[in-house]
Amino acid sequence: MITGKNYIGNQLSALGTKTYKTFNPKLNIENSLIFFEASEQEIEQAVSLASKAFDVYKNTSGEKKATFLNAIADEILALGDLLIETYMSESGLPEGRAKGERGRTIGQLRAFATLVAEGSWVEATIDTADLTRSPIPKQDIRKMLIPLGPTVVFGASNFPLAYSTAGGDTASALAAGCPVIVKSHPMHAGTGELISYAINKAVTKTGMPNGVFSNLNSAGIEVGVQLVKHPKVKAVGFTGSIKGGRALLDIASNRSEPIPVFAEMGSINPVIVLPEAITTKGAELAKTYAKSITTGTGQFCTNPGLILGIKGASLDNFITALSEEIVKIEPSCMLHPTIIGNYEQNRSNAMQQTGLSVTAEFDDTIAINHARQTITTVEGETFLKNKTLHQEIFGPYSMVVQCKDIEQLTIIINSLEGQLTGTIISHDKEVIAYDTVINALKNRVGRIIFNGIPTGVEVCPAMVHGGPYPASTDSRFTAVGTNSIKRWVRPFSYQSWPDILLPDALKNKNPLNISRLIDGIHTNHTI
Ligand code: NAP
Fold first, then answer.
1. Please, what are the domains in the chain?
2. Sign (positive/negative) of CA torsion 248, 250, 256, 259?
3. Ligand 1 centroid from CA 244, angstroms
4. Tens of pLDDT along 228-257?
5. pTM for this model (two decimals)
């Protein structure tokens, strides 16, 4: 069923000459299937088709888009074991994770289906006319959100389903009314092709325009760069490294028509352990955090890579306990030799920095492509002076910073780059006395967690998965949850437009029965 070809709309195509294979990190061998990188001609075809499809798809009703999104979910489920086996062979991740991620992917698609079927998400706003107003009569003005146009989606290696081909970016862009061209992640190209098959089956079954979805293979950056430069592409969704996201943002900004790039990138997710909390629950915390740091072999964007506390006996005890707990956990496989190579290199680079001590390193023999979980510690002053220590080490690694006092802790938080999450570990109401710390943390993160762990990103309307740069390129938006649809739309006003020519969302009779803001009042009444 996997052909190694590109999907240009619903057509399989392999015009390119460059080929590559995916890799099974568990077996340490290349998988046998050959994938064909998209050629310039195929890129052009996919974008042109998406642009034509947009003319139809942008006017497709919420109900029909919901049927389409639910059909994608059904078709993904219908792929059955083949999807799970392919996922596992391309990622080294276990079956439970594969099935869990498939459930999350399907859940996301259905959540967007529910959102667009209901319809109020378009934020219909109506300011009725007052032609008697003096000296200038007030015109009838009506506003709603409309889709931006063909969108290119780049997924990350560490979520072959939920942040990839039919992941949150694709689901939200399709829900918004934007055709999607996926730049397939080379590490899970087979998983991507299976999902693309499912999406195109849903396109045909539900009568969506051909070209509303394409999937282009590539094992390097060229295809992605060309897509972002293409004048008919109107937005970009990216999940991955800071280096990759920043490169695409720069390309998009330098186009003659700049376009938005919504990139969700790396993060070290600071965890602040307050003094009483570390004294009263340090041992329990050590167990919880050893698990969080190693979940998914630390290959999560919300991995707690930085723990900040106040120097003293309690923090020492915590570091000892965390170090003992983390080496009790069996090392697990990373996604790819390149990722384990980067992990080893970044980890050893950090470990060579002056003033850094390694308190735990799994030092028994481990299987190939498995990661050695590591805990290190530094003094606050050392951390402040050395920006290398502020960088993400993608894998099961975390560093404990021993701050001199609360003032230094606050200075350190202020010195951090933007982060996806920040966590406060507090004893009872201890947190009330730490206003300055909390305020500093709020400035640096998109989500603040109280007495919990940052790993595990719930898909719900209130979720913010994003944050000040470089956690994301635009901290006003989330990449997870139904609000992520807002990335792919723009506000659009109709002035003095005849009712019959208005979209249903703005018509006097409110045929969609949605909630609207009419003359400043939220209502689902007619006019
Ligand atoms: P990556 O190396 O940045 O790759 C992501 C995708 O972007 C790939 O398809 C890659 O193509 C492409 N790409 C990278 N650099 C590019 C460039 N300069 N120009 C054009 N395309 C480029 O990331 P990854 O290794 O897959 O994922 C791991 C990283 O993602 C970690 O840093 C992690 O923290 C982050 N992440 C963030 C989130 C979040 O929501 N914030 C979620 C998961 C992961 P090629 O592979 O073909 O080069």
1. 13-265+478-487 (3.40.605.10), 270-450 (3.40.309.10)
2. positive
3. 6
4. 999 999 999 999 999 999 999 999 999 999
5. 0.97
